[in-house]
Structures are given as structure tokens and as C-alpha cells.
């Protein structure tokens, strides 16, 4: 009999005390894990110090929708610090973590990923989303010492915000745009506006039956781009469409010490009029090691709309997507999940 934590609180079967589960419960057994073969294939690795970085990024964003980045200047000590804060957080008793539970309609807090509601089975993971100050959460989790967690989160957030700005600029340059040509924010001639960001800490506990469990179901992110630190344990897979190299397949992104994974989100897909592809990805789990990851979702500031860049659409041609704000798009994603992008597509007539 699996030991479910709902014995102690009202959240029915949703939150497992994973470490004490010896056998995969039916609630967490997925029938669809082997829809496509899992292969290894060289995911592009780009050194930001390389003068050709922008050119390589464009190629990777068109063909993969993701790449790994090195030479980014993020201190290894900061990566170690957030890794260790994540482990400290997820090691807390479930009752403690639930004190900082994400409210049903909220963004921030502890719990399942929002897309869980679209699936009949539960995922083998837990997570913590932070939008804005981490202090209220940290006070609930560590009433006597909230500062250590907050300091690391705030430093990480700042560093990621700066890196996201650099990457987005380079990616726009790689599309042949100068900063002055940016009309996506409706502010032609102005520099990149202050970007918004959301952090999500993920934990995938060691799993007694990894072949039947799903760490995180296949999805695309709604951000402009996501910067992911996956530490040292593999599990992240990118969906690669059928091409001359093989059929539709899952490609594992191998952890590379010190590297960060950059994932193209739906808003960059929209911005680039589909040239850069938002990539579907998922996470598989393993039998022996807990895996932690931290995703930084970077998007336009509140209230700013994103729409296809005029220069990329070309004169006399219609843009493929209508303008949306991040908040509006997140709402669509929450309601429609993988159908969200299609609903803002523009047909020739419209
Ligand atoms: C800003 C956000 C993006 C996200 C929803 C969220 O509020 C925080 C979690 C993010 C995440 C991570 C896993 C997949 C995803 C689709 C989900 O359900 O939660 C993404 C959301 C997104 O990119 O739309
Ligand atoms: O844990 C990972 O490697 C990926 C997590 C992810 O896709 C997400 O948080 O959106
Ligand atoms: Fe993701």
C-alpha cells in the first residue's frame, strides 16, 4: 500500500511523500511514455564568447528550438547555491511545504505544475513557482530563517534576468534585426524594455518504476525563452520532428557541467512569426537519483504585447499570429494547454 500523505491533509492523493513510496501507485502510472523512440543526438552547444554565437543561435532556434549555452558568465557557486537551496526546500516535510501551497488561481507557491489538470495521471514531480518576492513563501517554509533562501533566489533571479536580456538581444540580432527595429513592444526605436521573469524550482524524486512514470508531461513553455539549469542528472528530452536523420523522436539533453539550457517559448515563436520554433519537451525520471532543475521563464513586461516583427513578416504579407500580452497568453495556456498557440493564429482572410 503506497503511503499517501492525504492521510494527514485534505489534498486527495495529489501530494505524495515520494521518498516513502515503494511501488508506483496506479495514479502515477502513465500508459503513453513510449510514444516515440528515445535517442541521443548532439544538441547544439554555443559558447557566448564566440563571435559567431548569434549565427549559431539562429541555426539552433530554427532547427531545434533549444540549445545549451556555455561562456555565460554565471558563477558556478551561484548554480551550486541554488541547487542546494532546492534540495533543502524539497526535503521539508510535505505538511510544511503545503503551508506555501500555490492557490488554485495563483502563480506562486508549492505544488503540481498547472498543466497537471489536463492529464488523467499524476506526474512524478513537485515544484515551487516564484513570481516576485520570495519572502512570504520563505517565511512559511522556514519561519526562523527565511533569509538564506531569499538571498539565493534573489541573486539567481537578477543574474537570469540579465542573461535573458543578453540572449534575447542576440537572438533578435541573429534574425537580422537591429535594436532600433524592434516593433514587437509597440515601441519602435526604443531599447529592449525591462523583461519580466518567473522562476520555477522542480524536483523529480528517485522513482521505483521509472519506465511507467512521467516527471513532467510533454509541453511547450509560453515564455519568450526559458533558461534551465538541470544540474547533473539527465531527464530532459526535446521532441524532434521526423527528418532525414530519423522518425519523430525524443532527444535527451545531456547535462553539461556549468552549461545552461535555453528553450524557445511560444512568445518567441510568435515574435519571429514561426521562424524560431517553440520546442515541445518533457522530463523522464530515474530509479536511483533525485533530479532537481530550475527554470527561469523570461517574458515581456506586464501589459506589453508581442506580435510578429514586421520586417520578418515581409511587405504585403500577413503576420501568422495576432498580438498578445504574456498574461493573456498564460491565461490561454492554462485554459487550452497545447491548443493555445493555434487560437491566436491568423488565417489569410482575417
Ligand atoms: C509563468 C509561468 C509559465 C508556466 C506557468 C507559470 O505560471 C509558472 C510555471 C510554468 C509552467 C512550467 C511547466 C509547464 C507549464 C506549461 C506549466 O504548466 O507550468 C509552464 C507554464 C507556461 O510556460 O505556460
Ligand atoms: O526539469 C526540466 O528539465 C524541465 C522543466 C520544464 O520543462 C519546465 O519547468 O517548464
Ligand atoms: Fe518547460
UniProtKB/TrEMBL annotation:
It catalyses: gibberellin A20 + 2-oxoglutarate + O2 = gibberellin A1 + succinate + CO2. One of its GO terms (molecular function) is metal ion binding. Its cofactor is L-ascorbate. Pfam families: 2OG-FeII_Oxy, DIOX_N. Its EC number is 1.14.11.15. Residues 194-300 form the Fe2OG dioxygenase domain. Coiled coil: none annotated. PROSITE patterns: FE2OG_OXY. This is gibberellin 3beta-dioxygenase.
Amino acid at each position: 500500500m503506497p503511503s499517501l500523505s492525504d492521510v494527514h491533509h485534505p489534498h486527495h492523493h495529489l501530494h505524495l511523500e515520494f521518498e516513502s513510496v515503494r511501488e508506483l501507485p496506479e495514479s502515477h502510472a502513465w500508459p503513453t511514455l513510449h510514444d516515440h523512440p528515445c535517442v541521443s543526438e548532439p544538441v547544439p552547444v554555443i559558447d557566448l564568447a564566440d563571435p559567431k554565437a548569434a549565427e549559431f543561435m539562429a541555426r539552433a532556434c530554427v532547427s531545434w528550438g533549444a540549445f545549451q549555452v556555455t561562456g555565460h558568465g554565471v558563477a558556478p557557486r551561484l548554480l551550486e547555491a541554488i541547487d542546494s537551496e532546492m534540495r533543502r526546500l524539497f526535503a521539508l516535510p510535505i505538511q510544511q511545504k503545503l503551508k506555501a501551497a500555490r492557490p488554485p488561481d495563483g502563480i506562486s507557491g508549492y505544488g503540481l505544475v498547472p498543466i497537471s489538470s489536463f492529464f488523467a495521471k499524476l506526474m512524478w514531480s513537485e515544484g515551487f513557482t516564484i513570481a516576485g518576492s520570495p519572502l512570504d513563501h520563505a517565511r512559511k517554509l522556514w519561519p526562523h530563517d527565511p533569509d538564506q533562501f531569499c538571498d539565493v533566489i534573489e541573486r539567481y533571479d537578477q543574474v537570469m534576468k540579465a542573461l535573458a536580456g543578453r540572449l534575447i538581444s542576440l537572438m533578435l540580432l541573429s534574425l537580422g534585426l537591429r535594436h532600433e527595429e524592434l516593433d514587437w513592444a509597440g515601441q519602435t526605436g526604443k531599447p529592449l524594455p525591462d523583461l519580466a521573469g518567473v522562476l520555477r524550482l522542480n524536483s523529480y524524486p528517485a522513482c521505483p518504476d521509472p519506465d511507467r512514470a512521467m516527471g513532467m508531461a510533454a509541453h511547450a513553455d509560453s515564455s519568450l525563452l526559458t533558461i534551465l539549469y538541470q544540474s547533473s542528472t539527465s531527464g530532459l528530452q526535446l521532441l524532434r520532428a521526423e527528418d532525414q536523420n530519423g522518425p519523430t523522436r525524443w532527444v535527451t539533453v545531456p547535462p553539461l557541467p556549468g552549461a545552461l539550457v535555453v528553450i524557445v517559448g511560444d512568445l518567441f515563436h510568435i515574435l519571429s512569426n514561426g521562424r524560431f520554433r517553440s520546442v515541445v519537451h518533457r522530463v523522464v525520471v530515474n530509479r536511483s537519483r533525485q533530479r532537481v532543475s530550475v527554470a527561469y521563464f523570461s517574458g515581456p513586461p506586464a501589459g506589453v504585447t508581442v506580435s510578429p516583427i514586421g520586417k520578418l513578416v515581409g511587405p504585403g504579407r500577413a503576420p501568422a499570429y495576432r498580438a498578445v500580452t504574456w498574461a493573456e497568453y498564460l491565461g490561454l495556456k492554462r485554459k487550452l494547454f497545447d491548443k493555445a498557440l493555434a487560437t491566436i493564429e491568423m488565417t489569410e482572410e482575417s
